[in-house]
Amino acid sequence: MGAADVTAVPAVRLTGVSKAFGGKNVLSGLDLEVPVGTSLVVLGKSGVGKSVLLKHVIGLLKPDSGRVEVGGVDIWSVSARERDQIRRRFGMSFQEGALFDSMTVGENISFPLRRHTRMSVAQVRDRVAECLELVRLPGIEAKGPSELSGGMRRRVGFARAIALKPEILLFDEPTTGLDPINTDALVRVIQKLRESLRPTAITITHDLKVAFQVADRVALLEAGRIRIDLPPADFEASDDPRVVAFVQGDSAMDEETAPLEVSG
Ligand SMILES: Nc1ncnc2c1ncn2[C@@H]1O[C@H](COP(=O)(O)OP(=O)(O)OP(=O)(O)O)[C@@H](O)[C@H]1O
Ligand SMILES: [Mg+2]
User: Is 8's pLDDT higher than 80?
Assistant: First the structure.
């Protein structure tokens, strides 16, 4: 956005990344560059490999070939210990929320702080409160996850993801399964997080409205590669057949438009 601010090293860069499962190519020579501070949204049909892409970015999956760089460092050329350090620069909210049901909200959010820092009890308590305020759920530390609605659980998951003040946020389908009111609330939380933390962010979604609300850039993942990567207004106005097909498929999502699974 704005003037050409040429920051030398992108936050995340994938070069020629390929990954197959059981002989089926999911990523096929994928290239992607995310400049520091950019909010990238990746769209794509169900099963196309969006979660797989995100897991490559954070080093939970290793590419069959190609490079994954975080802040200019090839994460598979360093030791496991260094890779672990690099992972701590990320905050990830997983597609399935993944709160610990046996812990309170406060314990869930403080988990990474207690595990990875030497913060005092008071510092941890303050940071947890701050994170809950950022996701607009102040004061619910003592509640259990089972007492919360689906939308609130997602927001607590966000609070946990930002506890260590990550430089890079990864959101996998943050609004899927939520009603429009909770979706709007969550979008506002993402926008607020971006304003207050100014992180680099990669959000996976198949909700076009959400995409246009949180993105500086919108990319389309199709057949193993990033095919389109444009500012939201240009993406929306694009007459590229792949964009048109995706947008139409999204508005008429049913079995007839679902992609055929080709195996072998
Ligand atoms: N660990 C794994 N082992 C084997 N196959 C996998 C694994 N992870 C993903 N896959 C396969 O890779 C393909 C892409 O999966 P992925 O979860 O990335 O899709 P997606 O785009 O995130 O879909 P959705 O929109 O439904 O979340 C699927 O065919 C899936 O079955
Ligand atoms: Mg997924």
Answer: no
Expressed in angstroms and rounded, the spacing between residue 213 Cα and the centre of ligand 2 is: 20
Residue 229 lies in a domain: no
Q: pLDDT of 66-94, one tens digit each?
A: 999 999 999 999 999 999 999 989 998 87
Instruction: Write the pLDDT tens digit of every residue in 180-193.
Output: 888 888 898 888 88
Q: What is the pLDDT of residue 221?
A: 95
Q: Cβ(26) to ligand 1 under 6 A? A: yes
Chain-centroid distance of CA 102 in Å reads: 25
Domain containing residue 147:
100-166
Q: Is residue 138, in this structure, part of any structural domain at all? A: yes
- Atom 29 in ligand 1: residue holding the nearest Cα: 47
